[in-house]
Fold Peptidoglycan D,D-transpeptidase MrdA.
Amino acid sequence: MTELRNVEADLSRFRTRVLVAGLVVFLCFSLVASRLVYLQVYRHEDLRAQAESNRTAIVPIVPNRGLILDRNGIVLASNYSAYTLEITPSKVENLDETIAALEKLVDIQPRDKRRFKRLREESKSFESIPLRTRLSDEEVARFAARRFAFPGVDIKARLFRSYPYGELGSHVVGYIGRINQLEKDAIEEREEEGNYRGTDYIGKLGVEQSFEQQLHGQTGVEQMETSAGGRALRKLATSPATPGNTVMLSLDIGLQKLVEDMFGTRRGALVALDPRNGEVLAFVSKPTFDPNLFVDGIDQESWQALNESIDKPLLNRALRGTYPPGSTYKPFMALAALQTGTRSPGAIIHDPGFYMFGGHRFGSPENERGGAMDMNRAIVESSNVYFYSLANELGVDAIHDFMAPLGFGQLTGIDINGEVRGVLPSQAWKRGYFKRVEQQKWFAGETISLGIGQGYNSFTMLQLAQATATLANNGLRHKPRLVMGTQDTVTRALHPLPADPPVDLGYKPENVAIVRKALVGVTQGGTSTKVFAGAQYLSGGKTGTAQAVTIGQKDKYNKSRMEEHQRDHAVYMAFAPADNPKIALAVIVENAGWGAGVAAPIARRVFDYVLMGQYPSEEDMLAVQAGRAAAPIGKPRLAAEMNALLVDDTPGGSPSAAPQKAEPPAVAARTRPFSRQNRPRPP
């Protein structure tokens, strides 16, 4: 029996299949079309930018870092170009074998390998990392001949920071170092990531850190056309980098060198200010360090030597070292007595050589004369008893309230980072400082030692110098400043930094005159008379001896029985000329003993340099360094003679790293002699 096909049913099924197939094809074409519309219309700009980025590369142009000059145009920080051997880890198959092969062509030290390893851990694999810096021409030529054998290894020209005077003024100038994560985060918070693209280094200390934004400049870019393999074909566009500005300091590097040389191997600090405007003329902290060690990344051995040294060369003693001021505090105590009406200048206090309070005996040095003391004689002869009793009359809080506006125990606001406050004690301070209730009570006996600058008193030499400058300036207090202005590298335009207006502390002129007259008496018939014998100017000053460790009231100070780091500090504060002061300073020589024997001679030579243009003779310099000097000996060297003896040797590394003298900035006021003999060389 023959089966008959239902043609209509077959035709219907066929039509359904064709319709479904057509719908599927239409749907597929619709998806393709919609995707095409999405990519060509909605994602056009984004994909166009991606395509352009595949064809081109943006290369940052790191700006030249600005120079740092002293007040006379001497270059303290500059840049020079040198070749570096660099490796891109992602392009090297076997890193260890490659470095081993490179050692046959280029001198690679263990410290270079350690630095490379550290930088590799901090960097991305596609970034170029320096293995050896500052290659010689011979090393460059040897590698260039074998360049084909080292894929991923190349020689690049980089700018390096140079500190041509090495350790001289290192705490002021500071140094640069590789940017760490905290600094990256800070840059991101300031929204400056673009300006630091391609930059590996940033200011770490001193002026380099505090004026980083002025010194860094503006990063430029180059747009390059590249091949599929990433090889540069041609330059499409360039936006040049803007070099950093030149920063001009008030520092006199010749005076700075003189002071650092006079300290020799001893520890201490000196701050010299112009009391008329607050400009810092010298800012010395000894011992110093060589900032060139940090430029490429300091090696472990050098870091340990600096960080673990008992002399703490990395500590900026002028800014962060706090000390009891000793008897240099007495003139300010006298001024407090006059201003508050606590004691008249003619009031007589009998000095028997000790002061009794609450059953305790507060002694005086054995060489004090004693007897009837008025204010002038008490300052000139440095009577402890006079100021013990004065402190008791004033009380701790009255002392605090008078000394705080002078800057004691306060931040001066100087224009470099890291300043510490120190301690100006008061009852409120003690309650906040100590945790145990029984330690928070202020005892009347604790006030007595404050009168002679001991007890809880602890200040920086910067604070003591500012207070001295304020006294020398008749109660007008200027904020200390190291930077006078900047100079635009492109336009050469000078931009003096405006100084804050002085603060008038409201002292009565007759009270200031009484204290200043007594300080002049110190140099004419008091504790520093021998040091200032024969000076062609009058100066005022006060010697001080500050305890490094506490000595019991019943015990006698015996230098020979104490460890060197436990001996008293020698302190001196001074200003000159007496009638119209142009310089005020504070100096401390750690563990050196009596201020008149060690600290005051340094101050005398500073005044001779600034006021007379004189430089100590060689024999006098040796005597000061040994702590055996009084008035200058030998024939002082003059500026003209010193300039004739200048030897401008080129430091090792690059001729462009040699000391230079730029055009003197318009804001500089004077020129002083400077010798570059025996200056340190950068590594």
DSSP finds 24 helices and 25 strands in the chain. The domain at 60-249 is CATH 3.90.1310.10 (Penicillin-binding protein 2a (Domain 2)). Residues 7-42 form the longest helix (36 residues). The radius of gyration is 35 Å.
